[in-house]
Amino acid sequence: MVGNMTEELKAKICEYLATHNYLNLATLSPQGRPMAHTMAYVSKDEIVYVATNKNTRKVQNILNNPYVAFTVDEDDPDWFDMQALQVEGKASIVTDETELREVGEIIAAKFPVTADMPPDPDTILIKIEPELVYYLDYSVEFGYRTSINF
User: Which residue intervals define the domain Pyridoxamine 5'-phosphate oxidase N-terminal in the entry (predicted)?
Assistant: First the structure.
């Protein structure tokens, strides 16, 4: 039974990621100071991708320390309906041409506005692979949270 619950939770997490647009990414500066970055993202199953300028602080932080965390949530004023993901994982810069093309297609499908944007040689793609995910669903009960390791 535990196996089925695990697969069900993984499917819920992947569906939640697929149906939301923005995440709040936390990185650590080389001085150990936390930084938060609101970003549009796409997902492929549980893996999340964000595009950004290669010269940003978040990229420098990730190059220095690849461990990141992010949340995806609702802006719902009803505390008893709150749903969210809290994710801890590892970030890397995507260099594989096939993966870049595949994710580019996912980005264009999810955010059609990007199709009209000229290519920017300074834009890079960051891949975030989750290691631990907390799924919050206060509609189950107030404060309900369950977790899964990927």
Answer: 10-136
